[in-house]
Predict the structure.
Amino acid sequence: MSELISILIVDDHAVVREGVVKIVSTLDNVKYYEEAENGQMALDKLEQKPFDIVILDIEMKVMDGIETASRIRKEYKNTKIIMFSMYNERKQVTELIELGIDAYILKSADRNELIKAINHITIGGKYFTPEVYDVWANYNNSEMHLQDKLLPVFSLREKEIIGLLCQGLSAHQVADKVSRSYNTIATHRAHIMKKMGVNSFQGLMNYAVKHKLFIP
């Protein structure tokens, strides 16, 4: 069973919040959700109770989404942020990526894209709508610090396992998928993480996305 999550929906338009609520309320892994009309109200709610994910509009009165995202990232480091906007201006998207947001989708996207973004960041990944994905990819490429070291080479089997793990499958599920034993997959996973120089699933996911071993 998936880990249960809590979601805070922040937008100054009631009709937008209602639309997101209709989607969020259908998800089996959501334990509770609440709404806020602006950034300040969102911070007040976060102070009262924890939220795993904040779905955040950019243009709002009282406190806009960029300032709110910055405050959340500083004060609630474990809270994931999905920016939900009408705009895909490169400068604005880059600023938000630098703040450390976890996903960016447009309000014109269909319900499945919002669900996909929630699922990706829940397992430690990132999700950027196709209209802004190149901004995120270029930013990541510019931030690479290879320090004259060759990147490790992964076998086709390892790449397949990396892809399945990044899709959210457990080691047992991967074993069933590729018709191998759990112990074999666990060994592969350990070798993969050693090659990457990471010690957690989130580290594996971040490495895979950064080096294009997995495309969200």
The longest strand covers residues 30-36. Residues 144-150 have pLDDT under 50 and may be disordered. The chain has two domains: 5-142, 156-210.
